[in-house]
Amino acid sequence: MPLIEASQLTKVFRRADKDPGLAGSLKHLVQRRFTEHVAVDRVDLSIGAGEAVAYVGPNGAGKSTTIKMLTGILVPTSGQVRVGGLVPHERRIENARQIGVVFGQRTQLWWDLPVRESLGLLRDMYGIGERTYQQQLERFDAILGIGEFLPQMARKLSLGQRMRADLAAALLHEPRIVYLDEPTIGLDISVKDRVRAFVKELVDGGTTVMLTTHDLGDIQDICRRIVIIDGGRTIYDGSLAAVADRYARDRGMTFQLREPLGSLAALTAALPAATVAAGGHDREVSVRFDRFTLDAGRVLTGVLGVAEVVDVAIEEPAIEDVIRKVYLGELALDATARPGTADDVVPGGTA
């Protein structure tokens, strides 16, 4: 059984449609008009125990709305959702005990209390024993370095300190499901690496993680599966490796030659479907090609036909390029990838 399961999950918001100014407000009191905005549109989602899934998309795509329905903050307009066997908005307290949530732009710390007291209140709310609580604090201090600011008021923390404290607060009760929204925002490189290692450790220990982030380093370090949402609809659900392999058409190969080539004309004639360019020095050439029309073996054969090759480097497609193109509307994914089959893709998502 999936730990998180959503079927045709939909959320529609009503927005007041009124003219500007006092006259518009008075008219709206008498004659109310509304427009509907579909934030999440028939999303299907199935996440197993111990999975780490990146849930990404442009701003306004519906990511946060989905997370809020999974946590029970929002009630779906239609569709079904179950988390750990519970309907989140119907059994909020029970659901809260099995999940941890970090929203990068919001905090669960008490603003005018020291961080230590906020964590102490959460300890009491979740009924955590003193020994377990102290062990958790030591663990968080070793990884996140929270000890230095435990006595400080939450409102006096820097963004990076607050994010570390919020991570500790969300994980204090050892939830089996963790939703992370921009968990490394504001962190310096060294702490960011420690946080990523910590989250990977959670996943290895069986914790289910759903990660919403614009930091592609987080995605690559933590997740093996990615769900891309845009306009409220799932446009891709599949393995992280497959999305780059499936949609990143552009490949590059750089060749180190025994002797200077002199002219690129012979190489261009040998590889008419590729783009050939001089490299950083006279014994280097680079070839870019569409891997769906030309394979690396043919490119190598073409170069060997006109020059003696000393070394070759292949530039693999980057997941960043695919996601960036999706965000810019330059790439339409087919929503047919979901992990678990021989070729790592089966029908899924809503297009």
Structure report:
The chain is α/β, with parallel strands linked by helices. The protein contains twelve helices and 13 strands. The chain has helices at 21-30, 63-71, 92-98, 115-126, 130-144, 159-171, 189-204, 216-222, 240-247, 265-270, 296-304, 319-327, and strands at residues 4-16, 34-47, 52-56, 78-83, 99-103, 177-181, 208-212, 225-230, 233-239, 250-257, 275-278, 284-290, 309-315. The strands form three sheets. It has a six-stranded mixed β-sheet with strand order 5-6-7-3-8-9, with helices on both faces. The chain has a four-stranded antiparallel β-sheet with strand order 11-12-10-13, with helices on one face. A hairpin with a 2-residue loop joins strand 8 (225-230) and strand 9 (233-239). The protein is globular. The two termini are 25 Å apart.
